[in-house]
Design goal:
Blueprint (H helix, E strand, L loop, with lengths): L3 E5 L3 H13 L3 E5 L2 H10 L4 E5 L7 H10 L6 E5 L4 H10 L3 E4 L4 H19 L2 E3 L4 E4 L4 E4 L2 E3 L3 H12 L4 E3 H8 L10 H13 L4 E4 L3 E4 L3
Parallel strand pairs: 1-2, 1-3, 3-4, 4-5
Antiparallel strand pairs: 6-7, 7-8, 8-9, 10-12, 11-12
Length: 222
């Protein structure tokens, strides 16, 4: 399976090598010789993974990724580096890098690293619901994330949001909500649904959940 890959590398020969190799693997490859070019490409399109040379003439792959992470872009990234010092490698991981590979390296090894990261990411996606560019619902840990950081909500809020997202764009009836949030042995608390809806609106925005009078609620995409 191919991926959409952005490669940041100032060496033109290496760029061509990466492009030829990854294209054979079925990838759609975008090349950038500078951080400026890489930023332009990253803002124009969504990529599955970044391959980032660390040492660049006027900047670095570290700086590029740090700026993207600060802006809420959590696309997986592999650093390509000649650094040996643990401090530098630690810096790359702290910025938000997912892996690194040292020059010189075998291209097949690079592909194995790409595949390992993408398999992990795809596995995580099955356990997450992407709400929008800012919010993600983590189904495994039962929490809500905003730009990768946990937003504190209670379990009933979580269960209601999960139900609304499963039916996004469609009306979720009060009966559906009661069946999801309370067991058959429990009595739904009067007015509790409105409280949970309002809790979610405070976090996500009041326009994200519509009240369909007398029927239920609907999650609205922006």
């Amino acid at each position: 399976m191919g991926y959409r890959v952005l490669v940041l590398e100032d060496n033109e020969l290496l760029l061509e090598t990466y492009e030829d190799f990854l294209s054979i693997k079925g990838c759609e490859v975008t090349l950038a010789k500078s951080v400026k070019e890489a930023f332009e490409e990253a803002y124009k399109a969504k990529f599955d993974i970044y391959l980032l040379d660390v040492k660049l003439p006027t900047s670095s792959g570290f700086e590029f990724l740090k700026n993207l992470r600060d802006s809420g872009d959590f696309t997986p990234a592999i650093f390509i580096t000649s650094y040996e010092q643990k401090e530098k490698l630690k810096e790359g991981f702290e910025i938000g890098g997912d892996d690194y590979i040292k020059k010189p390296f075998d291209l097949e090894e690079l592909w194995l690293r790409i595949e390992a990261i993408m398999h992990r990411v795809k596995g995580l996606e099955k356990k997450q619901i992407i709400i929008d560019e800012n919010f993600t619902l983590d189904l495994e840990r039962k929490n809500l994330l905003k730009n990768g950081k946990e937003v504190i909500i209670n379990l009933k809020d979580f269960e209601l949001l999960e139900l609304l997202l499963e039916n996004r764009g469609r009306v979720v009836t009060k009966e559906m909500i009661e069946n999801r949030l309370w067991s058959s042995k429990e009595t739904p608390a009067s007015g509790a649904i409105r409280v949970y809806v309002n809790n979610l609106k405070k976090v996500l925005g009041k326009d994200r959940i519509s009240n369909i009078r007398g029927i239920g609620y609907r999650f609205e995409d922006n």
